[in-house]
UniProtKB/TrEMBL annotation:
Coiled coil: none annotated. The gene is LOC108841771. Residues 72-177 form the Serine aminopeptidase S33 domain. PANTHER family: ALPHA/BETA HYDROLASE DOMAIN-CONTAINING PROTEIN, ALPHA_BETA-HYDROLASES SUPERFAMILY PROTEIN. It holds the Pfam family Hydrolase_4. It comes from Raphanus sativus. This is Uncharacterized protein LOC108841771. InterPro entries: AB_hydrolase_fold, Hydrolase_4.
Amino acid sequence: MGGVTSSIAAKFAFFPPTPPSYEVVADESCGGRLYIPEIPRRDDVDVLKLRTRCGNEIVAVYVKHSKANGTTILYSHGNAADVGQMFELFVELSNRLRVNLMGYDYSGYGQSTGQASESNTYADIEASYKCLKENYGVRDDQLILYGQSVGSGPTVDLASRTPNLRGVVLQCPILSGMRVLYPVKCTYWFDIYKNIDKIGSVACPVLVIHGTADEVVDYSHGKRLWELSKEKYEPLWISGGGHCDLELYPDFIKHLKKFVASLANKQAGK
């Protein structure tokens, strides 16, 4: 059984950059504080190593915003990038949305140990979520889970089990691994990232962003997930947008800002 699942993962899911785009170094002059030499050192960024329940050690970065509006984003990236490559986007999202943001590398990505697998990514996001709660005091009702492409898998899985989240963002998400490869009508036992079967259990507002010209994950995936969401937020279908360029469109940040603000207003009204 595991062999079939591994075959799907090999065809579709995991392509960590080789070699990794960054290293992690301990600065002994600052009490062993971790930093990434390949990116500018900043006082508002923490570099962390987190132990997962599967025994792997993953790398995460936490970007702090001095005027954060009480919102934190936990970002799960796509299948062909690592934290070093994503860092500039993390900082931009934090600045433009006025939020704190944690991004992390899956097991087997960047300087995270272990091997990438569906089960490991679930453990990876859980370790990051636990760190936000225990180390930074983030409450569920302050937290937005953000999943890009394959990152929609661990995002939807955690969101389906966490009832009081502030919100969820799914960018070019997948219905499931099999459905990216083949136009199947039902879910098979050996499929991975069965978002189609879990999205209905997500209790918070869900924003879906997808490009209409996505060449990797057809935007019908995003449309269907939005249709199946329990608490729908106005989606963003970017005309002509591909799989890896949505951040370049002005409506991208504009719509995210509107979503974050609406969630903050909703929370303030409780």
